[in-house]
Specification:
This protein has four helices and eight strands; from the N terminus they run E-E-H-H-H-E-E-H-E-E-E-E. By secondary structure, the protein is of the alpha+beta class. The chain has one domain: Thiol Ester Dehydrase, Chain A. Strand 6 and strand 7 form a beta hairpin. The two termini are 14 Å apart.
């Protein structure tokens, strides 16, 4: 079993595919300064059937310095006022931070230990939002990520800062 990946709150591990971590293959994650993209199809496959998949998160890019994704504010993710639920926005950002950490791991797994969200705009039903997650700190025990959630036109919806614990 691959020892690398994302550890969710229930202790389930979503493994990063071996071809992503194998030094003999096309990608080495041991140098965090390299701009190496993680295979988006592999991320989708690893998250298939999980909460991010249920939400409909679509990953656009995954590299050690940046993870981007989109999400449509479907009616089942909205409040009774047809506004995207704040918890959906937080879960979207949390997923991007977890994937960003996993892309940077050379060993172990990750779990969120802190998250703070500033909500700046409401998201109407059927709107598409974008998330861009970038590192503030990439250490050996923790990583801190900032995720900007915007509309397609760049208007800021929310700003999230989260800390990921590296386990193992």
């Amino acid at each position: 079993m691959n020892p690398h990946g994302i550890l969710d709150g229930s202790g389930n591990r979503f493994n990063v595919p071996q071809q992503i971590i194998d030094v003999e293959n096309r990608v080495r994650l041991c140098d965090m300064n390299e701009n190496l993209a993680m295979d988006l199809a592999s991320i989708r496959e690893q998250l298939k059937g999980s909460f991010p998949d249920l939400m409909g998160i679509q990953f656009l890019e995954a590299s050690p310095g940046r993870v981007t994704a989109s999400l449509v504010a479907r009616p089942d993710l909205c409040t009774v006022g047809n506004i995207l639920h704040g918890g959906a926005i937080m879960a979207f950002a949390d997923t991007l931070g977890a994937v960003a950490t996993a892309v940077n791991l050379t060993t172990g797994s990750t779990t969120t230990i802190e998250s703070k969200t500033n909500f700046l705009k409401a998201v109407p039903v059927n709107s598409r939002i974008l998330g861009e997650c970038t590192p503030l700190h990439r250490g050996s025990r923790t990583m801190v990520w900032q995720t900007r959630i915007t509309f397609d036109d760049g208007k800021l919806i929310a700003l999230v800062i989260q800390t990921q614990l590296i386990i193992g």
